[in-house]
Design brief:
About 30% of the residues are buried. It is built from eight helices and 15 strands. With about 325 residues, the chain is α/β, with parallel strands linked by helices. Helix content is about 35%, strand content about 30%. The longest helix has about 30 residues. A hairpin with a 2-residue loop joins strand 8 and strand 9. The N terminus is likely disordered. Strands 8, 9, 10, 11, 12, 13, 14 and 15 form an eight-stranded antiparallel β-sheet that branches. It has a five-stranded mixed β-sheet with strand order 3-2-4-7-5, with helices on one face. The protein has a two-stranded parallel ribbon with strand order 1-6. The chain folds into two domains: about 130 residues, Chitobiase, domain 2 (2-Layer Sandwich); about 160 residues, Protein Transport Mog1p, Chain A (3-Layer(aba) Sandwich), CATH 3.40.1000.10.
């Protein structure tokens, strides 16, 4: 009788073990978590507190272009391998550093959770570990930014959205804007949406100009984009003081980089705005897309006015909104 019971217990244990093994092999992963633009860094404390950690912070926690000096592009949470817990392993963005005999840089997708980007950076000395990281830092940043933008846009489409038929009517495209924004100004080929904040606002302006305003023999494209931005802002984005209006900060030349949305190429411009004849300032993001069919540059200008508060994630929300633009979801 006792042998029968022992046999039954053995069978139950085998079935349970096989069941658990199947759960692992079938790839059932927990959903990842994390605040927007956060990275979990797994590294020994002595490395983190030394030159390796300095190199990591210099790249992954660098100041965002146009943002205040204390606003990094990513917030970093450091764990030593010994306390890299199950919960921490479900972070959305992870970089694991270690001294090892092998020299390795690799990206694993959805390793502990999903969606997830997990980078492994290894080398056999501190000097080579820094070199390995610096060689691939731009790739790490690009992957994390793309992933975070994707998360931002997924969150956006789950929100209650504003009726933006007027965008379709004016500019022959669609865009997803949360209902927390409202249309505050409408003019020929110009729309201004605004979201109230406790002590400021987030703003999205959409307008179009002829291609010849941007591409001509008088000035280069970068200068013309700034001139157009400033001239449009002077007309429509005015302050409370007399003769005050939004301009590009003259002492801080913006960053330009090429961009492609669907088949439309253009420029992404980041910098700082200020108010002429006033003391207001903040970051802006301008995306200008060339549309040869309509002989225009379609321009999306986002700027945040939120004095003494963090603006990084607010501007990132604006970037997510702008990049939902769709030129094909349009019956006309």
């Amino acid at each position: 009788m006792q042998l029968k019971y022992l046999y039954l217990i053995f069978i139950v244990v085998c079935i349970t073990s096989c069941s658990k093994k199947n759960e692992i092999t079938t790839g059932k992963l927990n959903p990842s978590f994390g605040s927007r633009n956060h990275i979990t860094v797994v590294i020994e404390d002595d490395l983190w507190n030394g030159e390796v950690g300095d190199s990591i912070r210099k790249r992954l926690a660098q100041t965002g272009f146009g943002l205040d000096k204390d606003e990094p592009i990513f917030d970093l949470d450091q764990y030593s391998p010994e306390i890299f817990s199950t919960k921490a392993k479900t972070s959305r963005n992870i970089v694991v550093f270690s001294n090892s005999d092998d020299y390795l840089f690799t990206l694993e997708k959805s390793f502990y959770a999903t969606p997830q980007n997990l980078f492994f950076v290894r080398a056999n000395s501190n000097k080579e570990l820094i070199q390995n990281f610096n060689t691939h830092a731009d790739s790490i940043i690009s992957v994390f930014r793309k992933s975070e933008l994707n998360e931002e846009q997924h969150a956006l489409v789950r929100k209650e959205l504003l009726d933006t038929d007027i965008v379709k009517e004016f500019f022959a495209c669609t865009i997803k804007i949360p209902k927390t924004f409202q249309l505050v100004l409408e003019h020929d080929n110009f729309l201004w949406f605004q979201k109230d904040l406790p002590t400021g606002n987030s703003n999205l302006v959409i307008y179009e100009v002829p291609i010849s305003s941007i591409e001509n023999s008088k000035d280069d494209i970068e200068d013309n984009l700034i001139k157009v931005q400033d001239s449009i802002s002077k007309l429509f984005i005015q302050g409370s003081n007399e003769n005050s209006y939004l301009i590009t900060e003259t002492g801080f030349f913006p960053s330009f980089k090429p961009i492609q949305i669907q088949e439309f190429s253009g420029y992404e411009i980041s910098g700082t705005w200020e108010m002429e004849n006033d003391f207001m300032s903040g970051p802006f993001l301008n995306i200008a897309l060339k549309d040869s069919y309509y002989d225009r540059y379609l321009i999306f200008q986002a700027f945040v006015n939120y004095p003494y508060k963090s603006k990084r994630d607010l501007l990132f929300e604006m970037e997510g909104i702008i990049k939902t633009v769709n030129f094909y979801d349009n019956e006309n």
